[in-house]
C-alpha cells in the first residue's frame, strides 16, 4: 500500500507539469519574427490567407515568410495592408486580384495592439486584411494572419482606418474566367479593374 502511494505521488507532479505545458497561454501568443526586405501583397502566405491562389511559376522561388510581432529595435514607419480586390478584366479574361494599400501616420495604437504577447481574435467574417509593418528603410514584418480579424481585431482595424492612405494599387493574382479558349494564362500585364 505504501509503495502504491509513493508511486502515485511521483506520477501526479509529472502530470501537472505536462498539463501546464499543454495549456499554457504563452504557446498561443504571437512571438517576434524576422525582418524582411520585400514586403508584398503577392507572397504566397498573404495570398493563401486571403483565399487567393497565386500563379505557381511566379512564387516558386519565393522564400517562406515568417509571421509574428515586430522584434525589439524594429521601428515601423508605414503599414502595408493587403485585402482581396475587385475582379479585374483584360484581354485574357477576368482575374482575381489583391488590393495593396500603403498607410502612414501615428502608429502608436496599432503597435500597442500587435505587440508580442497580444492575442488575435477569431476570424468569422471572411479573410481578414493582412498587415505588414514597414520601417524607413523598407524592411518589414508580416503580422499574424489573424491580427486584423473581427472581434478583438476590431481595434486593429480601427487603428488602421485612422491612418492616412499614401498609395493604393490593384494587382492581378490568378485568372478566374478566361476570355476564350485561346486566352493566355496568368501573368498578363496591364489588367484593369472590371467595370459593370
UniProtKB/TrEMBL annotation:
The keyword Signal applies. Residues 1-21 form the signal peptide. Keywords: Signal. The keyword Signal applies. This is DUF3515 family protein.
Amino acid at each position: 500500500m505504501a509503495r502504491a502511494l509513493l508511486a502515485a505521488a511521483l506520477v501526479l507532479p509529472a502530470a501537472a507539469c505536462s498539463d501546464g505545458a499543454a495549456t499554457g497561454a504563452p504557446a498561443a501568443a504571437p512571438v517576434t519574427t524576422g525582418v524582411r526586405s520585400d514586403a508584398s501583397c503577392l507572397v504566397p502566405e498573404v495570398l493563401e490567407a486571403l483565399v487567393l491562389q497565386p500563379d505557381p511559376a511566379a512564387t516558386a522561388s519565393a522564400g517562406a515568410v515568417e509571421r509574428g510581432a515586430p522584434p525589439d529595435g524594429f521601428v515601423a514607419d508605414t503599414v502595408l495592408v493587403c485585402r482581396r480586390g475587385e475582379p479585374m478584366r483584360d484581354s485574357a479574361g477576368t482575374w482575381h486580384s489583391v488590393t495593396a494599400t500603403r498607410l502612414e501616420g501615428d502608429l502608436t495604437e496599432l503597435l500597442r495592439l500587435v505587440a508580442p504577447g497580444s492575442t488575435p481574435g477569431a476570424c468569422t467574417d471572411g479573410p481578414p486584411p493582412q498587415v505588414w509593418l514597414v520601417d524607413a528603410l523598407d524592411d518589414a514584418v508580416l503580422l499574424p494572419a489573424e491580427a486584423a480579424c473581427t472581434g478583438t481585431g476590431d481595434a486593429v482595424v480601427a487603428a488602421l482606418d485612422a491612418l492616412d492612405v499614401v498609395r493604393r494599387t490593384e494587382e492581378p493574382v490568378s485568372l478566374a474566367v478566361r476570355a476564350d479558349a485561346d486566352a493566355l494564362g496568368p501573368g498578363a500585364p496591364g489588367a484593369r479593374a472590371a467595370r459593370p
